[in-house]
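Quick one, T. Sequence first:
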Amino acid sequence: MDPLVPRYGTGSLSDVVPSLLAGLGVPGATDVLGLSGPARVCVLLVDGLGRRLLREHEDDAPFLASLAGPGITAGFPATTATSLAALGTGAPTGEHGLVGYSFEAGGEVLNTLGWSRYGVPERVDLREHLVPESVQPRPTAFETAAAAGVAVRLVLPREQQGSGLTRAVLRGGRFDGVLGFGDLVGRVAEALRSADRVLCYAYHPDLDALGHVYGPGSKPWRWQLRFVDRVAEAIASELPPDGALVVTADHGMVTVGERIDLDTSDELREGVRALAGEARVRHVYAEQPERVRERWLSVLGEKVWLASRAEAVEAGWFGPRVAGHVLPRIGDLVVAARGGLALVRTEAEPHMTTFTGHHGSLTAVEQEVPLLVARG
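Structure tokens:
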């Protein structure tokens, strides 16, 4: 099985908002996904809603299953921070620079979801040391839209306001914090009627959380999918005549069947200066990468796709271009799990180690996400 390299520029998450901006008359935007037309649009991103998972559980999501739309790829790694950056900036990983759940930057290993120091028990806020607007300096797609006169609204969980990740990749719109499904629907409906041209971005995290804990396709996960389906249907019922709802996701998810603990394997830790990423994708920083590569391949063999930084860049894993300031953030080796393997860290990631579901790699289940459209 070959890795599924994201279809940057022709069918990936980073193409969604630029395609919509083209229809909203924003200069320089190109509609490569055929989405242009509606003047008032809500993008609903459902965390963890893989395309294949949705197909397997269509009976639990009849409204979403009824919508037409092409499948797209998430981007690499197929993880929340990287994917939200792709959506928010309209750029592939190598350009927006959030190369994973965690990575080396500015002398730290940054946990991008918490914008905190990775791998330590206490939370160390890094927003002052690693200023989010400097870690990701390019203008977001939302800033570009707002500058062109589009009303931009962000309907997100209240606790995400001012977070490092929000500042880095979602800046540019008015933040409307929500507490649950009810005000999410209400805030979106209000946003879509706030101006003649509107781009509203809404986010729901809980399907992903239940997939991690119980596994994708589990009963709790399926119940949550049913709730998500009703929310999407409710938003669609509130669309104005020139409005549209675009439903997509940041990644799929696999149920893991084998765990290898990197924190207790002397053979895999030998010569490794630092480890980052997450269980399905690891950035390995090493002084002598070739020796480390030999050891990892001797242990893991065909359970992983393993590439040097140069090989991963050449293969297009991070996009057609990798900016100079982004390149050192990528591990000397990039290790992407195949099958049901999880490369866990019981010491650095004690909670994540217990997860049943994981994501991040280059398998079709993790990479393929839906792109579904409902029109008013």
